[in-house]
Known about the structure:
The complex is a heterodimer.
Chain A: H1 2-35, H2 42-62, H3 68-95, H4 104-124, E1 130-131, E2 139-143, E3 149-153, H5 154-176, H6 178-188, H7 190-195, H8 200-226, E4 228-229, H9 233-248, H10 253-274, H11 279-293
Antiparallel strand pairs in A: 1-4, 2-3
Helix pairs in contact in A: 1-5, 1-6, 1-8, 1-9, 1-10, 2-3, 2-4, 2-8, 2-9, 3-8, 5-6, 5-8, 6-8, 9-10, 9-11, 10-11
Chain B: H1 2-24, E1 25-30, E2 33-38, H2 41-71, H3 79-85, H4 88-104, H5 111-136, H6 144-162, H7 166-188, H8 193-213, H9 215-218, E3 235-236, E4 246-247, H10 248-252, H11 259-285, H12 287-297, H13 299-304, H14 309-335, H15 345-358, H16 363-379, H17 387-401
Parallel strand pairs in B: 3-4
Antiparallel strand pairs in B: 1-2
Helix pairs in contact in B: 1-2, 5-11, 5-14, 5-15, 5-16, 6-7, 6-8, 6-14, 7-14, 11-12, 11-14, 12-14, 15-16
Amino acid sequence: MPELYHYLQQLVNGLTVGSTYALIAIGYTMVYGIIGMINFAHGEVYMIASYVAFIAIAGLSMLGLDHLPLLMAAAFAASIVVASAYGYSIERLAYRPLRGGNRLIPLISAIGMSIFLQNEVLLAQDSRDKAIPSLLPGNLVIGESAMHGVVISWTQILIFAVILLVMLGLTLFISRSRLGRACRACAEDLKMAGLLGIDTHRIIALTFVIGAVLAAVAAVLLGLQYGVINPQMGFLAGIKAFTAAVLGGIGSIPGAMLGGLLLGVAEAFGADLFGDAYKDVVAFSLLVLVLLLRPTGILGRPEVEKV
Amino acid sequence: MSTRLRTALFSALLVLAVAWPVLGLKLTTVGIRLEVHNASPAMLWSIAAAALGMFCWQLGRDRLAALWSGAASRPAVPGRLKEVLSLPATQRWGLLALLVPALVWPFFASRGAVDLATLILIYAMLGLGLNIVVGLAGLLDLGYVGFYAVGAYTYALLSEYWGLGFWTCLPIAGAMAALFGFLLGFPVLRLRGDYLAIVTLGFGEIIRILLRNLTDVTGGPNGIGGIDKPTLFGLTFERRAAEGLQTFHGFFGLPYDSADKVIFLYLIALALVLLTLFVINRLLRMPIGRAWEALREDEIACRALGLNPTVIKLSAFTLGACFAGFAGSFFAARQGLVTPESFSFIESAVILAIVVLGGMGSQLGVILAAVVMILLPELMREFSEYRMLLFGALLVLMMVWRPQGLLPMQRPHLELKS
């Protein structure tokens, strides 16, 4: 059944990419859910996190400490810390002073921030691709052989495992913890939450930090999977993730997860059918189709507008 | 004191965490290995200085703020003058006053300056077109450059395959872009505003990807070259005319001057901008124009008054796209070459920035912003590496300091004074 294996392989590849889209998409959807703005600079946070992960890995290998778990832990820790710092600073500098005005204003500011960050990295590092060898070589083959079977690399298995854990942790955090409850309250009604004594500025900053942490996790995982980074990678990843968030229903965290997976799978099959160049076309066409049939996204709630 | 110390420490650490890993360390590929090296000592010292500066600032910010407020109050534009400057009537006269110098100036200026001014006019036209969509109708369009690309490629393809001239193609390009706007807007405009933003962004990208990959028709990444320049009633501005055509300098018995062509292009661009301004100003006084602004202010009230939001939005969207098509075909004629990379997202961002920087809805503001946005990077050529970095920072700072734009529009209104 080579046909079936082929499709299963595409499914696995699509789910791998899709689950990382989902992680980045959560950052968009949480911010949107609370303050209703598209955080355009989120893709750049992801890109910076990838650079930091590569710096950590390359730095430790130079020191001769190339013990695998240590490298991974360092990459995760470094990129999470730096990405959170970026997430927080971006919110503090570019969005907080603008709160409460026209909706377009923060968006322009976000586009400006995105251009700024991209060029900061472009100047400090350079525009050339940076590559690291795979840290986790080897595959798991299901079926008779690599040609007649489904190949899942260890990296992909690691991606699934980590993302599952992170999603579980996030869901628990949002539904059980005190801060998570405050987050939900802010998403429900920012003004009312403020009146009830929740420090809304802090909660908004927290959502930016959570988004940045998830983007950093995605950055490390995708860095391990592809092994290549460049300063331009944030833009497309950001747009894809935002598409995923809209697809699933923006503002909804399970929606972002579902949207990410769906987008990844659609892209994998689209690339298979129409060729790699049209991957992005497939993604955006899917978005338009879903919005036509279900304007609020797959899991989005219809928004009632009141006077 | 201890909370302040903690804040100061936190801020300083934040500066370090943001700056040091990205700016202070540099990834270099050595052979097949990736290595990390320290950046230049100057960079490391300035990062340390920035962190220290942040620390001191956070510690003493209350005292500093008190000093500052005691020392000087900002000289502000007097209230009356501000009112007068942002009234539509003043802005109209301002435009008329600019017109005469704009007509005479190119005959005395250098060729490079006129060429730059033509570019500014293209962006002014794009800004005015997007202003209908974003500033007047309040729809966020992040893929405006897609329509610009449609216009440019319409002319390029028609001229390449059927040999049509600029003046025939100009209306066709506008109509094609409008058609694309209509087809895209029809399904999407019923949705909430933010979805429009992402769908238009996706559309812009799709257009670019298609242009790059349909190599047989569009020439792929190399684009289409050798596009004819516009003619003046059949007179070309080249040194030698093609068969059946006459040259401009030959017809009038003037010596050949390559600057003529540049000035002619500038004048066409100026005429196109004036046409755009005229059409928009007329439309603004018609029911449809009033409906755009009403829709921006309150969609529910509009519905209650019996206006059909979809039709109104669609008209704004289509018209905006149409102007982008005109600008695109002129752009193709001026460059003589179109490539997909001329129509990347950053162009959309620049045009949107022009609209917002100018003050949404304000036409003089948009033109002023087009001048600033195109001229500034040109003046900063020496720092060309830092151009985009500064552009990004400028956008953020502008939004923080003056979110209403350079010259916001104001409707004539009465204020009750108690």
